[in-house]
Amino acid sequence: xxxxxxxxxxxxxxxxxxxxxxxxxxxxxxxxxxxxxxxxxxxxxxxxxxxxxxxxxxxxxxxxxxxxxxxxxxxxxxxxxxxxxxxxxxxxxxxxxxxxxxxxxxxxxxxxxxxxxxxxxxxxxxxxxxxxxxxxxxxxxxxxxxxxxxxxxxxxxxxxxxxxxxxxxxxxxxxxxxxxxxxxxxxxxxxxxxxxxxxxxxxxxxxxxxxxxxxxxxxxxxxxx
Length: 225
Prior knowledge:
alpha+beta; 4-stranded antiparallel sheet
């Protein structure tokens, strides 16, 4: 009787193969769960950034209704109080908290600018700005490239550090998604083609590509004059 009980008890124990199978299944489920959480967080950051872009575009429109000229930088929207919260200018993906200022460094009234993550064409020359406005309300005012593929470089920040997904806040208030890659012929020509001509900086930044702000036909690197 004792032997039979021991044999019955032994039959209820997990074998090594069964134990390893359970561990493998738990590991797979944990990986899937972490992946789903990571995707959800990424979508959440995109949603926050989209809201930021929309608020900043609205602030720009209010600024233009009060002043005859466009602001020369995003910081003016905060200084003029058309944008009440300067955090709106920061993308949640921006670990530097000043990506836009690093890529296109400018000065405002001799002081450091308010930190911002987004690229914008406000300091472009009047000629370039007029070309941009020919795209109508679909012209881009603010661009976030930080949700694409790439890594932020502090040693030599460049607009080409990221590619893929681009969020663009347009003059009509819409925030659209675009794809931009630097390794295709059009992307390379745009990277060095016509655009806003900034002063030389220690980061070597010269121009921002038109395609960040305007939907252009293939092979065209700037709006038609």
